[in-house]
Amino acid sequence: MLSAYGQKDSIVNSLDEVIVIADKNIKENSIGFKKINLQDSIILNNSESFTSLLRFNAPIYFREYGSGGTSSARFRGTSSSNTAVIWNGININSVNGGQTGFNSLTVNLVDNIDIRPGGGSIKYGSGAIGGTIHLNTDLQFKKHFTNQFISSIGSYETYKNVYKFSYGSSSFVMKGGISRNESENDYPLLGTEFVNTNGSYKNLEWNFNTAFKFSNNSKISFYTTKYNATRYFSGQLPNPKAAKEKYRDFNQRNLLVFEIKRNNFTHITKAAFLTQEYNYFADKNIDTYDFGKSKTYLLNYDFFWQINASSKLETYTEYTSIFGSTKQIEEKNRIQFSQAAIFTKNFQNNISYNLKFRKDFNSDFEVPFVFAFGAEIPLENNWKIRMNASNNYRVPTYNDLYWPGQGNLDLIPETSKQAEIGINWSTKRGNSSYTNVDIGYFYIDSKEKIVWTPGGDPDRNGIWVPINISEVLNKGFEIRLSQKYRLDHHIFTLSSNYSYTNATDKQTDKYLIFVPKHLINANFAYSYKKWNFFYQFLFNGKIYSSEDNFFSLPSFDISNIGLNYKIFNNKNQSLAVALKVNNIYNEIYQNSPSRIMPNRNFNTTINYKF
Amino acid sequence: MKINKLAILFFAFNILFISCNDDDEIFTPQGDYTDGILISGEGSATTGSVTFIPENLSAPQQLIYKTVNDAELGTFLQSIAFNETNAYICVDNANTINVVDRYTFKEIAKITDQLVTPRYMVAVGDTGYATNWGSTAVDTDDFIAVIDLNTNKVTKTIPVGLGPERIVAKDGKLYVSHKGAYGTNNKVAVIDVATEVITEITVADEPDELFFDADDNLWVLSSGRASWTGSESKGSIAKINTTTNTITTSFDLATTEHPNFLTYSEGKVYYLLSGNVYEMEVSAATLPTSSILEIGSVNGMEVNNGQLYGLNASFSALSELDIYSLSTKEKTKTMSVSLAASKVYFNE
């Protein structure tokens, strides 16, 4: 298994010239942050769902409404709408609801994923408070032509089929793929007489990406993807058979990037068009449904000026126009103009820092001026101190503002101030062994959080209304360890995250709901020649499900194991088979009340590259 | 709906239909939850639950169903109906009526077959009648489930109009307020149990609570439609003659006034309007002009034995029950009860 950033740095450095990355400067913008990069092999070992991929590999708590159901992510005890998902540099959180469902993203068509805990509103806008998750497409200007088939069969009639290709020369590249997943998902609800009822899903995604290099100084790239899913929302105990909800998703994303470099100046222009639509059927047997739709037009101009060997200035100008509607809300247009500036300094002794500012002008409300600071100070013996501070915001969603009878036009954006300081120790031994330890303390002070509450508006007695009310304080620390050790043909890797989160409501001093105090995950892998064995572990601490901390869900831990075998692996083709067993101890656990998660289950995969 | 009223109805029905039963066995209730108050909470992210408060108002006991049965009720616990021995807990999203011993709360049965969004039930002898919204996506499949209380099975269903809510029974007839589920309605249906013939009485929009006074008049409170619907309509209280099925008096409020939580105790009617409690004699010709007590916005209200019980609900934490003395108009007690608490029952 590949892991962590010791590894990532080397890959990025050596391939910088040939790989086209739409979100070019994530590395520089992330000075002072911890970044976790997930590559191919990890993605393949966790391809059940985005939720399980991240749950076992990142310090993020997921609340999943039953396996395969609605799933939301929380960094550091912040709310799920404070996690921003960034596709090739563009924020793709839902316009209507403000978040991304992690079971409505396809795992296998993403080339690599960056996970960055901490605020990121400067570059990624609304919702980047707890952290950002970056889905990246890599395009390589290098002579190659590869094809890949992945096919897997799992318990409860779960099927996945993926085809991907990539073709490239020194000046042209195109890459695409198609992925289809489906599952009956009717696993037995352990400890009850029921099975997971009405939980089936199927989805289809395809993507196509291409880039052309006019010269060493200018290139153009285009990314497009389309996703289509039908899912059913599974039932809750005590009577899962009552479930009959159905949900359809249609998402489409298109992005055009043009880059030109002249002397010390680089200009990147982006144009994007995104559409999102959901259809919600309260009863799958009836044709009437609720819907939400949005169209987003985005224009972005990025200007980089390498002032001298150590200084760089970036400005970032963005115009966004969003048209959103639901069955209940007629189409509203929201326009936002943003201007940001980022100054980065890299001293010769490798001390680096950056300063960032952003001001938004939004047609619907005042958005606060935001700033950020990040620094890294290398010390002796491979130690490094990193720090960052920022303020960030989340704008109210369309539902918050416009829901008939309940929306609140007086809402203002949520804001947070945060700071983080960490220490990092990284060492490489020889070509293929390394150790990286990172310990960071975080502090997030959030205000004006939007909470739906009955009687929120004195003029609307007893009606649920969103208001800016709560103030919360999150603090804690995260530890990440990643290690690789190689002895001849024996390769051992370990990566592990521990996070301690103390998140409280400032008024009541109670613990925030759905925030585990302790969260641990670990991945251990051992490879020998054609064989690879891995073990995954997750401990999810107790969570409260009511604000007075009266109701709670107990902690749980689960373990998965897997075995991969490369049948052959030569220059032109490779064939591998894999077997994975999830929840090997058959643990009964829930991460949302009254929804029992899957028992022990199996998954086999064939992976053929040629 | 209060238990003593239900008990009266039950006995009245008994006398009418099975008065030949001369077995004079005295029933003595026994169990941990005898003599006290039951508060039901709908649940939200968490399950629906029931709190028991002993008659002496000492410490409330939370989650009594879970404590006894080591199981969850599910969401949303809409209401509880009672007969002499059992409580029938209607959980609408779970399509379930949980049958428990009303004094021990030990589960006897779960009724799920043929129930679709069950809201309220009334027990008449060996038969239960439960209002069901049917699929919330369809306006035309609402029904009354007829339940054999010996076998705890649905024996048949009676189709009714949109959104049947509360249900009471008298003299072989069922009276159902059609609040309208997710839509809106303005009917009280009178269903002849024997013939299943339905007579509809039109009242103001969104009728909810209903009960009989000592003179057999049926009282129905309609909240009216809220302003955000774009077609706001007046709240109203209707007094209906159950012999002729006609409204004898319609106590209308202003278009912008939306009362709730009509209840009846010792010859008086109580309701809540904009956080204020109003009291009127059943013989009154007009609505009272001044309130007797301000309790604020609540999610449920009941009056019994000179005490008023207001449920100051929280949907993300335990709720608060406030008890007021109607003679002194003072708040006498406050205690924590079920999450999303909405109903008060007296388990006597």
Descriptive notes:
The complex is a heterodimer of chains A (610) and B (348). Chain A has 610 residues and is mostly beta strands. Chain A is built from six helices and 33 strands. Chain A has a 22-stranded antiparallel β-barrel. In chain A, a hairpin with a 2-residue loop joins strand 17 and strand 18 (311-326). Classes of the chains: A mainly beta (610), B mainly beta (348). Chains A and B meet through loops of A and loops of B.
Indicate the percent of residues in helices of chain B.
under 10%
Classified by CATH, the class of the domain at 10-280 and 428-436 and 469-609 in chain A is: Mainly Beta
Which CATH architecture of the domain at 10-280 and 428-436 and 469-609 in chain A would you pick? Beta Barrel
- Report Rg of chain B: 19 Å
- Poorly predicted runs of chain B: 5-24
Assembly classification: heterodimer
The number of helical elements of chain B comes to: 2
Poorly predicted runs of chain A are: 1-17
Largest sheet of chain B: 4 strands, antiparallel
Query: What spatial order of strands do you see in the largest sheet of chain B?
Result: 3-4-5-6
Cα distance spanning the termini of chain B:
14 Å
- Spatial separation of the terminal alpha carbons of chain A: 21 Å
- Please state the structural category of chain A: mainly beta
Order of helices and strands of chain B: HEEHEEEEEEEEEEEEEEEEEEEEEEEEE
- Portion of residues in helices of chain A? under 10%
For this structure, the CATH topology of the domain at 10-280 and 428-436 and 469-609 in chain A is Maltoporin, Chain A
Report a brief summary of the structure.
Chain A has helices at residues 4-15, 26-29, 40-45, 50-55, 121-124, 398-402, and strands at residues 19-21, 36-38, 60-64, 71-75, 83-87, 90-91, 112-117, 131-136, 138-140, 144-154, 158-168, 172-183, 201-215, 218-233, 245-262, 265-281, 290-308, 311-326, 332-346, 352-362, 370-378, 383-394, 414-429, 433-454, 464-487, 490-505, 518-528, 531-540, 543-544, 552-553, 556-569, 574-582, 601-609. Chain A is mostly beta strands and 610 residues long. Chain A has a domain at 10-280 and 428-436 and 469-609: Maltoporin, Chain A.
